[in-house]
Write the structure tokens for this entry.
Amino acid sequence: MGVGRAVSLATATAEATATGAGASASPGPQGHRVFTLGPLIHNPQTVAELEAKGIFAIEMAKDGGFVDGKGRPVAVAGASVVIRAHGVPPQVKSSLAAAGAKIVDATCPRVLASQKKAAGYASRGYTVVIAGDRDHGEVTGIAGFAPGARIVASPEEAQALRTEGPLALIAQTTIKKEEYQAIREALALNHPLLEVVDSICPATADRLKALEDLARDCEAIVIVGGRNSANTKRLLATALELGRPAWLVEGPADLDPGLGSYASVGLTAGASTPDAAIDAVEARLLALDPGVQKPLP
């Protein structure tokens, strides 16, 4: 839901700019008025489609300025900059505003809730602990709302954490429920004053449950999604843990032809994978030659 909403907001912003609603905006040095802060979605095909509509990704440079994918400076004054579903620390929004950008905030509502929870706990003297991938945009964004926040990526890191006073634990929305539970239990061993926020997106749990059902019914699993997507990589790892040969593909061109020799193949996808990409992979799977030798797991 969050990623789909972000793509829709970016597209609507570009259309409004093209029809004159954003005529007051001055284009950046590459001639564009709409940018996204980081790739809006972990899917190369969708990113290319957005670029065709005049929506280009930029990044924040170490000096506080903004650069395009080739490291060239981008002037965002007067341009619309879309905050992706992952969200950003408040300092990044301040930098955009100071640079004269028009901010279009597409932060996922669930991530916004986590940001507000983190800020609230920090203001009451809690140390906020975030369970998730240390370099993930959502995690760094939440941490920005809670000065002194600590990030743990495993139960081992949680058990090794030492800090005084009460703790509040918040999860990256796409973490596995089992991972979060293990981190919670490890953290509680040394920190009895612990409050836990239920911040996992229900869609994540639903998707993992569906994957377990597929693994029972199918001989092999194909996951469609970006190779840089954290939740997509989790799906791949889970499929392999369930004892099924599994492949992560970004599109139909990545499919192993030997998949056609399996009697049944389960198809699932990451949280940000567009329906069109899933449909294309499904069509290609159905057209595979069943006579091709089965690939090794």
Notes: The mean pLDDT is 89. The first strand starts at residue 34 and ends at 37.
